[in-house]
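**User:** My hope is that you can spare some time for a protein that puzzles me. I have put the entry right below:
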Amino acid sequence: MNKVTNSDLDKLIIAVHSSKKYRDMDLPTDFLLDLATQAASTSRNDAEIKTIFRKSLHNVIAPYLESIDYAKETSRLQDSPIILQDIRAYCLDIMQKHASTRERIPYLEDFAACISEGIGHPSSILDLACALDPLCLPWFNFASQPRFQAFDVNGARKKYLQTFFELTYPSATATQQDIFLQTPQQKADCVFFFKEAHRLEKRQPGGTALLLHQLQVDVIVLSLPAYDLGHHHSLENYHTNLVDKAIHGQPWSLNKETVGNELIFFIRKGDITNA
């Protein structure tokens, strides 16, 4: 292990905050410090620290998945809210710009129907590491709008989602937060955790189990890709084993559905008041 000072880690964080690639995201310092500290703990020299840190950051933030100017989109919503008159058309247009939500579009109706059937009509939902998943809300036929709180580490995306919510879902809010370092502790009927557990495991092996254990919720809806983005390799066994390992030893029930390219796991923790 290379001996690293706080000053060395601070320089890595400052470089991210000032870089063209990440500066607009306004990433939390505690999040960056966690990645930098982990990189330092397994590195032999400064060059390795920088390499591991940058790789970890790239993996968690996944900037390669999208081409969205969130500041521009936020301004467009504020200046021309009329574009939301056809809310589904608007959401589809934005989701096309993000690889993860783009590949869901062909089976979006079935995706929402499967989850709606599995969770019923919850009064409160938390959406963890949400990315653009909240733009799927218009496809959920809730009897009434649940209290919905979306969490994302990207500050620019958080501001965009908050503007979207204010114009479309007044019972929803967006929060900038690293859900691994600061796992939400509020009680809720349901949690969405879509297409992120595999990245969490790369950041911290066993991290999914730690996250799920801390959540104060009845039902967790966790999804993972059935295939890689190129649809060349099946990931079903690998990702099913990931979830099985994460809940091993817990008195929770598990049901799995497959819709399009997504494995949907319904994890029921039961009555949280008696946990």
